[in-house]
């Protein structure tokens, strides 16, 4: 237990003793051992199932958290017996970090106490009788109370162990003097867990009602299959989204390292693109694509010589032509990344101008894809409101005036108006980078230099 802090060891020991005390009354012949054993084995299998492959693919990490069986036990059994259901699955749960046996004991004790609390809360409300009689909708009242109790205990224990590992008292309030303890963490965990555990609670309630019906436990087991497949699919989707974000983050970090003077520019252009897209009423999926487009619009700079990106002073015509290849480089780099969708087109065309003076192809007006017109405005806006190696930042109001002046010639007026409305509604609060002098990108007037919107990138 060397890797577990002393405070955490004490907290785990207290929780384990408490769980044992709660489950001990069930260790009698009068307990419904067939039901306890079947539910315990079923939950243990649910904890192990993510290690198996479905359709040739292994379930993502974190898929073992599957509560319908535990909640069904809380609806069907007395509190002590419901606590026993969680023990085998918790002790067999996968633990990546060492000491594994301590983490498994912690998991078993935590779930046992949560299941005990759920059963104890719903029992005085007549929950078990309502389940046996399938008394809808009354049965939803004790079931809902049980779910809330389950979430409260689970969240408190999670926040408590987090506090204990940091040497704080694992109690959900503030110490004297105002020093924060797990209160905020407990509330956050509780609010995030209510919805997913509530869905698991409905599945557990369906299991419990079918279990007490003439069809028996076998019918109750059928509830698990669609529920588990749905959870697996959602976890797989979440895993893929995490991989997408990691891919984008790696590309952006590579650009930031190469071009240190525009560090943070990509994220800010993504933020501005998202603001414009929302103001235009685009759906959430397309807004996300525009955010990706803004974040990755300059990824082609990885193909440009670093000396040109970091050069102080004006570029020669030959050097400018080399830099103007970066949209094509970027398009080639992301061509095989399917989830980017039309963001790839925006990367290629974000330097096109309505009057045909842009690059790489000199497209005119509506020939320029809509997504590229959005990113073009976002890119120019952030370029003007952030400090570069060759000039200081402009205030937001001055940058907006420049965009409006160039609207119709360089930028799509609709996109400019959308950005202006979004700024009026929400303001501009980008992440501050090391080389910026203020939150909104403004600097003293004496330190500003004139900037042309068409060259601000």
Automatic annotation (TrEMBL):
Q: Does the keyword Coiled coil apply?
A: no
Q: What is its EC number?
A: 3.1.4.52
Instruction: Using the record's annotation, list all stretches that form the HD-GYP domain.
Output: 240-435
As one GO molecular function, the record gives: cyclic-guanylate-specific phosphodiesterase activity
Q: Which UniProt keywords apply?
A: Hydrolase, Membrane, Signal, Transmembrane, Transmembrane helix
What positions does the domain HD occupy? 262-384
Matching CDD domains, A to Z? HDc
Q: Mark the transmembrane ranges.
A: 66-93, 105-125, 145-168, 189-211, 217-235
Q: What class of enzyme is it?
A: hydrolase
Residues spanning the signal sequence = 1-23
Q: Where is this region: Disordered?
A: 431-457
Pfam families found in the cross-reference section: HD_5
The UniProt entry, under PANTHER family, shows: CYCLIC DI-GMP PHOSPHODIESTERASE TM_0186-RELATED (PTHR45228), LIPOPROTEIN (PTHR45228:SF4)
In its UniProt entry, what is this protein called?
Cyclic di-GMP phosphodiesterase response regulator RpfG
Its organism's taxonomic lineage begins at: Bacteria, Bacillati, Actinomycetota, Actinomycetes, Kitasatosporales
Q: Which gene encodes it?
A: rpfG_2
């Amino acid at each position: 237990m060397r890797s577990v802090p002393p405070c955490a060891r004490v907290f785990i020991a207290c929780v384990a003793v408490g769980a044992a005390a709660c489950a001990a009354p069930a260790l009698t012949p009068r307990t419904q051992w067939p039901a306890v054993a079947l539910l315990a084995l079923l939950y243990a299998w649910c904890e192990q199932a993510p290690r198996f492959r479905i359709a040739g693919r292994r379930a993502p990490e974190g898929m073992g958290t599957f509560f319908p069986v535990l909640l069904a036990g809380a609806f069907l059994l007395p509190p002590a017996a419901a606590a026993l259901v969680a023990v085998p699955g918790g002790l067999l749960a996968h633990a990546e970090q060492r000491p594994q046996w301590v983490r498994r004991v912690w998991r078993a004790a935590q779930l046992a106490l949560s299941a005990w609390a759920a059963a104890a809360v719903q029992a005085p409300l007549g929950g078990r009788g309502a389940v046996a009689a399938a008394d809808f909708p009354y049965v939803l009242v004790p079931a809902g109370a049980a779910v809330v109790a389950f979430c409260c205990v689970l969240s408190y224990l999670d926040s408590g162990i987090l506090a204990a590992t940091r040497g704080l008292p694992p109690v959900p309030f503030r110490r004297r003097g105002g020093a924060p303890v797990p209160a905020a963490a407990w509330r956050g965990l509780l609010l995030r867990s209510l919805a997913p555990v509530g869905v698991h609670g409905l599945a557990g309630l369906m299991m419990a009602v079918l279990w007490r019906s003439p069809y028996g436990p076998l019918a109750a087991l059928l509830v698990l299959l669609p529920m588990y497949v749905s959870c697996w699919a959602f976890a797989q989707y979440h895993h893929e989204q995490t991989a997408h974000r990691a891919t984008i983050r790696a590309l952006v970090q590579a650009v930031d390292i190469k071009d240190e003077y525009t560090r943070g520019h990509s994220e800010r252009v993504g933020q501005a693109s998202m603001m414009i897209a929302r103001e235009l009423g685009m759906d959430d999926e397309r807004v996300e694509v525009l955010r990706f487009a803004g974040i990755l619009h300059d990824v082609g700079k990885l193909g440009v010589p670093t000396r040109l990106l970091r050069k102080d002073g004006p570029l020669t015509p030959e050097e400018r032509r080399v830099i103007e290849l970066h949209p094509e480089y970027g398009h080639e780099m992301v061509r095989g990344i399917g989830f980017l969708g039309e963001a790839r087109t925006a990367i290629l065309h974000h330097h096109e101008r309505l009057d045909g003076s842009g690059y790489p192809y000199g497209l005119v007006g509506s020939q320029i894809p809509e997504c590229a017109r959005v990113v073009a405005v976002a890119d120019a806006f952030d370029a003007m409101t952030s400090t570069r190696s060759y000039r200081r930042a402009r205030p937001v109001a001055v940058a907006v005036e420049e965009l409006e002046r160039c609207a119709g010639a360089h930028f799509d007026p609709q996109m400019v108006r959308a950005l202006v409305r979004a700024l009026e509604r929400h303001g501009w609060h980008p992440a501050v980078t090391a080389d910026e002098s203020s939150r909104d990108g403004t600097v003293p007037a004496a330190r500003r230099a004139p900037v042309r919107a068409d060259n601000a990138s």
